[in-house]
Structures are given as structure tokens and as C-alpha cells.
Amino acid sequence: MKKIFTFIAAMSLTLPVLFAQSVSPEILEKVKEAGEMHNEFLNDEEVKLSLVPNTELSKLAVSHWDNEEKPRLTSEKLFYLDKKTIGSKEESQGDNSSAKNLTIEDVSKVIRSISTMKGTEYYSNRHKKWETLYHEAYLVASPEDKTRIPDDTEGSADGKTLYCMQDDNSFGKCYYSLSYLQRENEVSVCFDNFESLKFAFITAAKPHNIKINLVVIDEGEYFLVYLIVQAYYPRVSFLEEKMIDSFNARVDSIYKWFVKEMGD
Description:
This protein is an alpha+beta fold. It is built from 7 helices and 13 strands. Strands 1-2-13-12-9-8-7-5-6 form a 9-stranded antiparallel beta sheet. It has a two-stranded antiparallel ribbon with strand order 3-4. The termini are far apart.
């Protein structure tokens, strides 16, 4: 009997930990109501990240910047994605049990399906219309060998490093290394440009001066999706405006792509 009481007491202590939310109740309430939250820091502003989920991979995501120069742009966004809303409109009105059963393994496959980013759209603030963000997207064999290869979606993503090309509407062909980590209830990827990004004849960003981190956390009935962009670029007024608009649009587009692919 004593052992039974000891077991119950131990479980009472561990259960709050097992079901602890990765963000504060206040942030969870706000992001659930609004769907998303956003912070942006420019140039010499003090960076105070307040939306980072309290998880291992989220903490790693915000520590990937290792350049000597401080980012000119740091933009973080937190999204709340109710599993019941994933899929077609007809499905979301019903039970939609298939969406409810989505797991980190499903997420892991989606964020490695780079070829499905082709055709992703974004809203251009400059042109005031929707435009195609990526005219083409696929994995390449290596930074030295840019031969197209199939998406790598088998097994766990943990520890994988892949390489991709994205034919960007603003910057043309962009090449990134993709570093993945996966845990039981979360998965992440860091996009790191291994070649310069060009805007017309201007070098918009040198190698490794763009880092886009995506973290998806399974919270049971919903996913939390955390995205952070860090970028260093020449301090030229028209270019700065272009970079800020472009990368904030990319955050929204990556999320839009993720939701669509999870529904498919």
C-alpha cells in the first residue's frame, strides 16, 4: 500500500511537467485568439525576444546566429494552428479525425518536402498584389554539386543536413543549407544561405548572412509554429526596405506553405 501511495505522489509531481505548455498562459491566450504574434527589431534596436517557446529546439533556433556582425533585421513570429482546422473547409467543419491525429512525424516529412514549396505565393507590399514567391524549389546534392535530387523524407529528420535551391521572385536562384533536428514532440529546420543573395546587380546578403529558423511543436490539440528570421545586409535605404518586406513576407509564406502541405 505504501508503494502505491508513493507512486501516486510521484505521478502528481510529474504530470504537471508532462503536460506543461511551452509558452506562458498569457501568450497562449493571445496567440490562440489572434492566430499569430509578431516582434521585429531593426539595426541597433535592443533585441528582446518574447515569443520563444520554452523547448529545446526553440532555444537552439534563436542561438544559430554566429556572425561577427549583429543582424540588421530580427523578426520573430509565433503561430497557433488548431489541428481541427487543418485540411479542406468541409473536413474542418466535421470531426476531421485524420487532422487530429497528425504527429511530429508528419510535420517532419512536410518540412523536408522542399519541392512542394514551388508555387508558394506571398503578398507583395510594393506591388499590392499576390505574387509567386518560389518559381522553383528542390534539393541539390551538395554546395559543390548542384544536381537536383529527390526530397529526403524517410525516417527521422534528426541530424540531417540537406541543401536546396529556391528560385526566388526577388533574389533569383538562392542556395541554402538545411539543418534539421527532431525530438518526440518537436522538429526544426534552419535555412542558412551558403551563396550570396543578389538583388539586381547588388549583393543583398553575403553567404551565411541569412538564417531562417522554423520550429514546430506538437501540443496535442494544436501545433505552435515559431519562425525567426535574422539577416545582415548593406545599410542602403531602398535595399533595407526591400529586405524587411521580403523576409517578413517569407515568414508568412513559409507558414502558409506548411499549413497547406499538412492539410494535403
